[in-house]
Amino acid sequence: MSSVENIFDFLDENYIPEKLPFRESQILFIKDKIEKYSKNFKPTYLLIFGSSGLGKTASVKYVFKNFQILGIKYVYLNAFVYNTSSLLLSKIAEELKILEIRGISKEEILERIVNYLKNSNLKIVICIDEIDKVKDINEILYIFSRMTFLYNYYPYLILISNNKDFILNLDQRVLSSLNFDELEFKQYTFEQLKTIAEERVKLIFQNNYDKAAITLIANLAYNYNSDVRIILKVLKKALEILLEKNENKLSIEIIKEVIKKFEKKKIDTLDEKIKLINDERQKEIINLLKEKEMTTTELFEIINKKFNIKRRMFNYLLKDLVNKNIIEIKRVNGIKGSKFVAKLIL
């Protein structure tokens, strides 16, 4: 087994391995887009989407780490931490080591960023992860579009989201000024998850592990929408148990012990699922359905009146609740035609 000093590093979500199995084509796609940008091609922004744990962030960071181009500055930001346009711009300025930005407007920060990049003869590639978490998302995207129109400077913007449908609620002024290439990360197959799990296990245990343990780990991850992070969590817990027992072999018994504990933590009640909902519009939908079943048309009329959202965005919010197994929508045929009825899953 690898030394304890670095053993847990291999299981950190931020650890970027030398290879990212089954994401070679996506990495090449990102690399090629940046390469074209470096050669003065007018950039079309890149929208990367796919469910959690499919390697979206890791692929971008892999390119940033291994594909260095003279004159290109990479900036990675996570909107879960920097969730407003002001915080994002300030962090970009910080990454560029631009001083004295406190107390000045966003417009002034933007101008200093552009002036610094132009004077340094630098191009910039900015990745905003979890872009849908930005509270004033329309504002930050509009600001980036203004870099082009006001300063004749073209940044390259990479946006990452679990679902691309967030663009349905963007202002028209933003949509009309931005063009996106799309890159979807599809779920891993069971066999691919086995390979990913085994490669990470080999980093730690070399050949001191049961093959059957790999199958169990991969199966659990597959049942969680092919989320690779499940593999990391299971292995991390297994390592903690092994260190406590002063053992060094990853056995099938250890993995069974971990999975048993892991599955106890799985969210399986409606109340626990609802606690994880942060979107106020979705909370309101749930509260309405707690009272009674409603047609999607009735729901939309109420939600639209309160939050002033577009029908496409409303449909996305419903679909997300369905995917989280919180509500279900059934088609009901009646005298005046069919309608869609939504209700909570009890």
Describe the protein.
The chain is 51% helix and 14% strand. It has 15 helices and 8 strands. It has helices at residues 4-7, 24-38, 56-66, 85-95, 106-119, 137-151, 172-175, 190-205, 211-223, 228-245, 252-264, 270-275, 280-291, 296-307, 311-323; strands at 45-49, 72-78, 123-129, 156-161, 180-184, 294-295, 327-334, 337-344. It has a 5-stranded parallel sheet, with helices on both faces. Strands 6-8-7 form a 3-stranded antiparallel sheet. Strand 7 and strand 8 (337-344) form a beta hairpin. The two termini are 46 Å apart. 28% of the residues are buried. The model has no long low-confidence stretch (mean pLDDT 89).
Q: What is the topology?
A:
Layout: H1 4-7, H2 24-38, E1 45-49, H3 56-66, E2 72-78, H4 85-95, H5 106-119, E3 123-129, H6 137-151, E4 156-161, H7 172-175, E5 180-184, H8 190-205, H9 211-223, H10 228-245, H11 252-264, H12 270-275, H13 280-291, E6 294-295, H14 296-307, H15 311-323, E7 327-334, E8 337-344
Parallel strand pairs: 1-4, 1-5, 2-3, 3-4
Antiparallel strand pairs: 6-8, 7-8
How many strands, what sense, and barrel or not for the largest sheet?
5 strands, parallel
Biggest sheet: strands side by side, in what order? 2-3-4-1-5
User: Uncertain runs with pLDDT below 50, 5 residues or more?
Assistant: none
The H-and-E topology, N to C, reads as HHEHEHHEHEHEHHHHHHEHHEE
Q: Which overall shape is indicated by the principal axes computed on the Cα atoms?
A: flat
Rounded mean pLDDT is 89
How many domain regions?
3
Determine Rg (CA atoms, Å). 23 Å
Report the top-level CATH class of the largest domain: Alpha Beta
Q: Kindly identify the CATH topology of the largest domain.
A: Rossmann fold
In helices, the fraction of residues equals 40-55%
Class by SSE composition: alpha/beta
Task: Report the span from N to C terminus.
Answer: 46 Å
- The CATH superfamily of the largest domain appears as P-loop containing nucleotide triphosphate hydrolases
Q: What's the CATH architecture of the largest domain?
A: 3-Layer(aba) Sandwich
